[in-house]
Amino acid sequence: MTTFALNNLWTYIEGLSLKRKDREWLANKLLEPVADDKKTARQKAYVKETLTRAFDEVKAARRGETKMMTEEEFLEGLKAVHVC
User: Fold this and answer.
1) What's the CA dihedral at 20, 25, 27, 32 to 10 degrees?
2) Whole-number Å distance between alpha carbons of 45 and 34
3) DSSP letters for 12-77
4) Phi and psi for 9 in degrees, rounded to 5?
5) Rounded to whole angstroms, how far apart are CA atoms 32 and 81?
6) Residue 69 contacts by C-beta under 8 Å, 6 or more apart in sequence?
């Protein structure tokens, strides 16, 4: 957001007739994204690491260094992880 937009937002918020409880609620909502940003960053790092590892495995298989897992082996692995 630009400084202009933030100033307009602040002016709007100041113009509201907020009780103490409402101000506390708003303050908590404004602080929440910080925690979400950390969680999102961890999730993005996990996805990047997982995709990088998978891509490296495919490249190694294409070079003949490793054997790719078949669809059946993959599904069996999923079944083993997911206990019904």
Assistant:
1) 170
2) 17
3) HHHHS---HHHHHHHHHHHHHHHHHHHHHHHHHHHHHHHHHHHHHHHHHHHTTSS-PPPHHHHHHH
4) -65, -45
5) 34
6) 77
3-class DSSP assignment, residue 78: helix
Which tokens go with 36?
């979400």
pTM of the model: 0.44
Distance CA 22, CA 5 (A): 22
* 60-75 pLDDT tens trace: 988 999 888 888 888 8
* Structure token pair of residue 49: 């690491």
CA 83 to chain centre: 26
